[in-house]
Amino acid sequence: MVKKTDEVKQKINVEELVALAQGRFAKKNAGLAARMKTGDKITLSINPEDYICSPEIDAFWKPMTGLLGVPYGRIVQIAGKPDSGKSTAAMLVMKAAQQNDTLVILWDAEGKFDSARFKERMGGDPSQILVATSRNILEGIQQVAAYVKAVKEILPNQKILIVWDSVGASINSAEDEENEDISKQPGVTAKEVTFSIKRLNQLIEKYRDEDGGYSIAVLCINQLYAKIGFMAKGDAMKGGAELEYLSSLILGFTRKGMLTRTKGGNKVKWGIETRIKSLKNHLFGGDECLAELDLIVTASGIEPAKEAKKKNPDIEEDEDE
């Protein structure tokens, strides 16, 4: 019996099996067949075209994640407390997307996108952004999906970046209907966020190209809040556990303090210092990458704190208590 098993094993040609299985699909399902492969073909891509990247986000993205940029085909999350630089980071990714000829769909659930800042301070083009403005979770995801379908009908190979800013500011259907039963609302929010994240995953999978490559990237901005209850410690993210599970990468932003300078005898704020931490990274397969990094965040962008302080040794800092 041992000898017979060995003979069977020797006859197995895995490459031929893949080709045979692929041949069972009709031409209209060529894309599905192309996604079938042997295990050695599944590696972390080193092709810049598989990422949204730019020198401006490279300064903090590469050392924190070990990746070339924001990957297509994945859900990435930036979570943090208020005024910690989350939306600034999102705007830099949006600008990088435009530089890479990737179309941006912004789900602006907070209603705080500043087109003047994006254009004048960051060099982006707000006129080329498709914006979904609903704060209602179910309505917003419908708007986003409608945009994606419209784009793909006209330009099937167009790459897309979807930015949801923010998950925590989006309201559920019970809140939108002025439902006074507060006890039910947290559960409703988690269910509707879960539905929306799975819908985004469906869009990512549906619009893969003929070779099986991804054409949609998703960046979710979220809030962190202190856990409440007996023995509860640390912070939690809004939107329920499903968003955390389905996010391949999560970076946490925490504001360290305010940056000030004296102008006309008055102390004025011109930026913040924030610390980012890697809360989850299922994409990096190397030996090590940074666990945390301090950044300077201003109206114009983000820069590693060490480099910024070398160029501006007179930076005044007011640390948060």
How would you characterize this protein structure?
- The protein folds into two domains: 1-42, no CATH class; 50-250, P-loop containing nucleotide triphosphate hydrolases (Rossmann fold, 3-Layer(aba) Sandwich), CATH 3.40.50.
- It is built from eleven helices and 13 strands.
- It has helices spanning 2-11, 14-22, 30-34, 55-65, 86-99, 115-121, 137-154, 173-176, 185-206, 241-246, 305-311; strands at residues 51-52, 70-71, 75-80, 103-108, 129-132, 160-165, 216-226, 235-237, 249-263, 266-281, 292-298, 301-304, 316-319.
- Strands 3, 4, 5, 6, 7, 8, 9, 10, 11, 12 and 13 form an eleven-stranded mixed sheet that branches.
- The mean pLDDT is 87.
Give a concise summary.
The chain has 321 residues and is α/β, with parallel strands linked by helices.
SSE blueprint:
Layout: H1 2-11, H2 14-22, H3 30-34, E1 51-52, H4 55-65, E2 70-71, E3 75-80, H5 86-99, E4 103-108, H6 115-121, E5 129-132, H7 137-154, E6 160-165, H8 173-176, H9 185-206, E7 216-226, E8 235-237, H10 241-246, E9 249-263, E10 266-281, E11 292-298, E12 301-304, H11 305-311, E13 316-319
Parallel strand pairs: 3-7, 3-9, 4-5, 4-6, 6-7
Antiparallel strand pairs: 1-2, 7-8, 9-10, 9-13, 10-11, 11-12
Span of the ends, CA to CA: 73 Å
Order of helices and strands: HHHEHEEHEHEHEHHEEHEEEEHE
Number of domains: 2
Percent of sequence in beta strands: 25-35%
CATH-level-2 architecture of the largest domain: 3-Layer(aba) Sandwich
Largest beta-sheet characterization: 11 strands, mixed
Fill in the keyword field for this structure.
single chain, 321 residues, Rossmann fold, 2 domains, eleven-stranded mixed sheet, 13 strands, 35% helix, 27% strand
